[in-house]
Amino acid sequence: MSAPTTNEPTPQSAHSLSGSPSNGSVADTASTKEQHDKPERVLTQQISIASCRGTSVGTTGPTDPDFEVDWDDDDDPANPRNWPMWYKGVTIGFISWSTWVVVLYSTSYTTGLPNMMRDFHVSSEPLVTLGVTTYLIGLAGGSVILAPVSEIYGRRPVYMCSMFFFMLLIIPCGLATSLAEVLVVRFFGAVAGSAMIANAPGSVSDIVNDEYRALAFSIWSIGPLNGPTFGPIIGGFTTQYLGWRWTNWIVMILSAVAWIFVCSLKETYAPALLIQKAKVRRKETGESRWWSRYDQKTSFTELLKVNLSRPFIMTFTEPICIFWDVYIAIIYGILYLCFVAYPIVFTQLRGWPTSISGLAFTGIGIGALLVIASEPLLRRLINAHAPDPQTGKPPPEAMVSVVA
Length: 404
Description:
mainly alpha
């Protein structure tokens, strides 16, 4: 139970209550200044704490501070930040695997393009490659929707539903009788699977402190960065020896394993855990006054409106978001251009077998692993900058040198 929260006066009201020091001593002046500054410091601390906890829409209605549900203490084992290190590693590994499967499916498709053209009697190669385009559009569109949903219901339910429907929608692709079926179903499958890409970074932040967050993200990124590389490799051997339809069944098996993984994980989102804790407390005690600061009194439609509009507002109003959106779009555009062009160049023009042509992507995978392995070195370069006197940490601008 947290300490009661009091409503502090504004700095202006504190100043007026203390009076202006016309003939007072220096001590009186210092006391007045302290009273003037204290509420502002308290308010700043409260805002900082709220932002760190990730509050999106606050509790409305009458609340009794004595009945607020919070973590028992700083070492509360129910807090995901206090989980054992081994379980944090397992959680990151399971999430990385699931993300790897979703991204792998985006490129394993490319190895079967010639066979699909033959089976579906399609003569236009650009038309068949639209399967990659529709999948990427589904990933982008689904991320905008499913990322905010996890802030309402928690990460785990979204992961479970996402991987289940992703796995289910692979079946129509494997049994498709026309190219149109493949294009449409791949789009909706990507929408379902996009939750892993959109919410996985949030889960990593949920369980890892600032000190180890960069390392944790590096470990998690092994999956999403190498998924596109393994797609053509696995798809190439599968297509040559089993047929292009089996590229779907292989991914379905991998996604079934991923679904088991995410079902075995605990909830990582602290607001969802505190909301559930308040519900349990109300049920056990019969006292309806137990509440959490994350209890939502707003309608689902209003919450969805707020959470869906936030990414667009940040994208078009924050310069740093605009920069990274453009930068990542260019990088991934070039990357996926390679995934479509390599099979054409190495299989059709150079006569490589379908299985061997996928190995042309190993260079990209090795490069991604080298970048991940260099994370400690990059972190040392960042920490070499003079620390900020106020925080004692390197300033945010220190990371610019690494990006450049």
